[in-house]
């Protein structure tokens, strides 16, 4: 009887999801409430978790509650600790959630909210969550080894090294893209700049307190740090309005770029406890807190979506980024649907903390569903903004012009009616000089978040406060990622270069240290600079590179999963990872191919480079470039990006060939050939429920 | 169960919840559970000295950003 009721409840939930979806898809020309998206997503996540997730756990991977996890086998009380599953869920989610799921959907909203929302939900269920979950299990059954080690063990030395080089390049592109989002958000914004600079002394104060005054008291100093942040945001408004201090904190995009590069170099040399760690704590708590606040805010405010379900830019002519829906929508959404980067976390700290193999479903699959939900909220935040304002904020100046009247006329001519007054009034409301061409996703998201939070907690002039709160929240964890990423990239670079020159491997020596740090900062700094100076707004150039790289890494992780399934003689279930792997390979190769060879200069890197080369030889200037040197630089950037895209495609195909080889070999023998560590049973008292 | 028992049970469960929250927050910062570490040391390695919380915290803080473990998502 009870089983019947439960089944009925699941059927009702599935029906709710379907009805919400149908409403979203079929209602045209009238506004739709954001709750329809949220409900559709949550209902489908729950059903997918209960049925598809459990199917993978039970039938495909045959999870065994009695099998000892690395946390029991190697328990050292530090890195390997059997951890309560809810505690571990929090840890895992905090590690995977970042700027990716927030920015991707904002950019994808140029095609309307429907295509992006559909891919966020379908993608996470069939690809993203599957990848995170399977890699977690595979790593957990191999002493918690890392993705690179797993590829090397199951496929061979060469693909392992190729995957490592790929991971390093991805890291560089991620750092450059993230840094560019910050630059675009802070350029010409004294208020934002002041608050972000203020986080440095606040973090140093927290660091000294935690190290010397009351060691390890994270909670009390984080609360103090948070209050100081709020004061800094309030004070930032005063600074921005001040006749001398306002201009003193106003910097152009290229000035901020140089400051960031210098900062990245210095920050990587400082002891971690002084700046990196305290800001990391602050940004982690702020991130989780803001995500919760946003979820509650959406439920209370129940905003209407003002962006149409589909815009005319589904044909690929959009101003925010160029390219057709296939494959570029799937590249743009990135982290919220599937993210290769998560495979690094799922084979990093999380598998070493797993108390029971069966928890992997909740943590791996469930954690990714939660990430997708964050992306859904970002999509909502971008879609409740007036579409005219959305396009004015996200289109490059080369397309829409630089003054409010021209911009309003251009954007209105696309069918998104907006007046110059609306643009200037919105800028004044959020305490900025201008909202035009603030590409990068962060400012748009901040306006959306500010609208939601302001409706919950209204107040005179509070909209500007919430806007800068949202900007600070993004800048804080992006800077932390840049900082930690530079350090991690430095170790990766030393490891890679150490293959050729062993003396560079000495991570404690100053010389190799400085070389590797400079190399790492130089690399992401170069991509950052070319993005900032790109005439088409940078995002159009760097975000697809990032998306291709990230989805490609996911493809590698899913190919690894497939190889392992065949080696385990689970052939009949291999489609679980083959289907998403094939889809990702099709998307990344198609996108890579178009980025290389598309004749449209706005899409193809080579076409764009050739266009600039020809113009230079004819001694013509392509605006907004002001001199031949700038044009030379655009040309070189595009050639470099083309080479990088080709390298990414080579990495994918190399791993694909090695995978096929490994699968053919696995099928030719009768027994299991995977490298799972030997089965050790848990003692009865160690089996958690 | 009378009212006092109920209140006591509630207190216990809310204390457990609080402990879990603190544990989660610390783990998000890469600091594992100290009590658990001390218990582990006493049970498995009684010969080793038990570091105080401050030393433990410093060691963990440095370890978090050593090598590639500082990697996190986009």
What does the model show?
The complex is a heterodimer of chains A (689) and B (74). Chain A has helices spanning 2-26, 34-60, 70-73, 85-96, 100-108, 113-140, 147-155, 157-186, 190-213, 218-241, 245-248, 253-269, 276-301, 325-333, 341-346, 359-383, 387-394, 397-400, 404-413, 420-429, 442-456, 462-498, 510-532, 539-567, 575-597, 605-617, 628-668; strands at 32-33, 304-305. With 689 residues, chain A is an all-alpha fold. Chain A has a two-stranded antiparallel ribbon with strand order 1-2. The two termini of chain A are 24 Å apart. In chain A, 57% of the residues are buried. By secondary structure, chain B is mainly α. The radius of gyration of chain B is 17 Å and the shape is flat. Chain B contains 3 helices and no strands. The longest helix of chain B is centred in the first third of the chain and has 26 residues, at 3-28.
List keywords for this structure.
heterodimer; A: 689 residues; mainly alpha; two-stranded antiparallel sheet; 27 helices; globular; B: 74 residues; 66% helix; flat
Question: In a few lines, what is going on in this structure?
Answer:
The complex is a heterodimer of chains A (689) and B (74). With 689 residues, chain A is an all-alpha fold.
Q: Count the beta strands of chain A.
A: 2
Summing up helix and strand content along with how strands pair, one would put the structural category of chain B as mainly alpha
Q: Biggest sheet of chain B: strands, sense, closure?
A: none
Shape of chain A: globular
**Number of helices in the DSSP assignment of chain B:** 3
Low-confidence stretches of chain B: none
What's the tally of helices of chain A?
27
What number is the mean pLDDT of chain B? 84
Structural class of chain A: mainly alpha
Spatial gap, N to C terminus of chain B: 51 Å
Total number of strands of chain B: 0
Shape of chain B: flat
- Strand content bin of chain B: under 5%
Query: Residue share in helices of chain A?
Result: over 70%
């Amino acid at each position: 009887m009870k089983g019947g009721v439960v089944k009925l409840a699941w059927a009702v939930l599935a029906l709710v999801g379907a009805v919400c979806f149908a409403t979203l898809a079929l209602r045209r020309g009238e506004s739709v409430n954001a709750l329809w998206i949220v409900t559709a997503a949550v209902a489908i996540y729950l059903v997918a978790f209960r049925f598809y997730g459990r199917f993978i756990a039970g039938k495909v991977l045959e999870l065994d509650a009695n099998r000892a996890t690395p946390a029991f086998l190697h328990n050292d009380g530090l890195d390997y600790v059997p951890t309560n599953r809810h505690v571990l869920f929090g840890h895992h989610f905090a590690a995977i959630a970042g700027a990716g799921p927030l920015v991707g959907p904002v950019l994808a909203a140029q095609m309307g909210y429907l295509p992006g929302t559909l891919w966020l939900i379908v993608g996470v269920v069939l690809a993203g969550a599957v990848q995170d979950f399977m890699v977690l299990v595979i790593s957990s059954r191999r002493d918690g080894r890392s993705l690179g080690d797993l590829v090397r063990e199951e496929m061979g030395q060469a693909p392992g090294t190729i995957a490592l080089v790929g991971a390093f390049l991805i890291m560089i592109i991620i750092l450059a893209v993230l840094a560019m989002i910050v630059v675009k958000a802070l350029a010409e914004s004294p208020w934002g700049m002041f608050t972000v600079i203020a986080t440095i002394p606040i973090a140093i104060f927290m660091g000294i307190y935690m190290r010397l005054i009351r060691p390890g008291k994270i909670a009390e100093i984080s609360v103090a740090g948070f209050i100081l942040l709020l004061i800094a945001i309030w004070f930032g408004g005063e600074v921005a309005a001040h006749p001398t201090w306002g201009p003193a904190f106003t910097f152009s995009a290229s000035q901020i770029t140089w400051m960031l590069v210098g900062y990245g170099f210095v920050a990587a040399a400082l002891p971690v406890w002084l700046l990196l760690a305290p800001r990391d704590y602050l940004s982690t708590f702020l991130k989780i807190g803001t995500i919760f606040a946003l979820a509650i805010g959406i439920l209370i405010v129940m905003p209407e979506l003002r962006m149409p379900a589909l815009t005319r830019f589904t044909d690929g002519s959009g101003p925010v980024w160029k390219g057709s829906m296939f494959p570029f929508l799937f590249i743009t959404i990135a982290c919220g649907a599937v993210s290769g980067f998560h495979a690094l976390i799922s084979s990093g700290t999380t598998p070493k903390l797993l108390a029971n193999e069966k928890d992997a479903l909740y943590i791996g699959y469930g954690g990714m569903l939660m990430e997708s939900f964050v992306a859904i909220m970002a999509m909502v935040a971008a879609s409740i903004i007036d579409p005219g304002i959305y396009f004015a904020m996200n289109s490059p100046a080369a397309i829409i012009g630089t003054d409010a009247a021209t911009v309003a006329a251009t954007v209105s001519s696309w069918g998104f009616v907006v007046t110059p007054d609306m643009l200037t009034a919105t800028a004044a409301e959020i305490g900025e000089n201008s909202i035009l061409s603030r590409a990068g996703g962060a400012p748009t998201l901040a306006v959306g978040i500010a609208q939601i939070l302001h409706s919950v907690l209204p107040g005179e002039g509070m909209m500007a406060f919430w806007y800068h709160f949202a900007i600070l929240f993004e800048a804080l964890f992006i800077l932390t990622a840049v900082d930690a990423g530079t350090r991690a990239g430095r170790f990766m670079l030393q490891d890679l270069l150490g293959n050729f020159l062993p003396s560079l491997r000495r991570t404690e020596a100053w010389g190799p240290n400085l070389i590797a740090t400079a190399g790492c900062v130089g690399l992401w700094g170069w991509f950052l600079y070319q993005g900032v100076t790109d005439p088409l707004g940078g995002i159009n150039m760097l975000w697809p590179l990032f998306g291709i790289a990230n989805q490609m890494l996911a493809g590698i992780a899913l190919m690894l999963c497939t190889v392992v399934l065949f080696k385990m003689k689970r052939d009949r279930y291999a489609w679980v990872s083959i289907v998403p792997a094939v889809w990702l390979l099709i998307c990344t190769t198609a996108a890579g191919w178009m980025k290389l060879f598309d004749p449209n200069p706005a899409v193809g890197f080579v076409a764009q480079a050739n266009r600039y080369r020809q113009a230079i030889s004819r001694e013509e200037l392509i605006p907004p470039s002001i001199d031949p040197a700038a044009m030379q630089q655009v040309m070189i950037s595009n050639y470099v990006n083309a080479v990088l895209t080709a390298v990414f495609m080579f990495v994918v195909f190399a791993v694909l060939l090695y995978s096929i080889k490994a699968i053919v070999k696995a099928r030719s023998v009768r027994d299991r050939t995977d490298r799972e560590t030997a089965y050790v049973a848990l003692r009865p008292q160690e089996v958690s429920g | 169960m009378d009212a006092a028992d109920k209140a006591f049970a509630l207190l216990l469960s809310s204390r457990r919840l609080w402990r879990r929250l603190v544990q989660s927050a610390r783990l998000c910062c890469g600091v594992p559970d100290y009590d658990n570490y001390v218990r582990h040391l006493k049970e498995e390695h009684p010969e080793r000295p038990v570091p105080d919380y401050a030393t433990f915290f410093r060691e963990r803080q440095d370890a978090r950003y050593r090598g590639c473990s500082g990697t996190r998502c986009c």
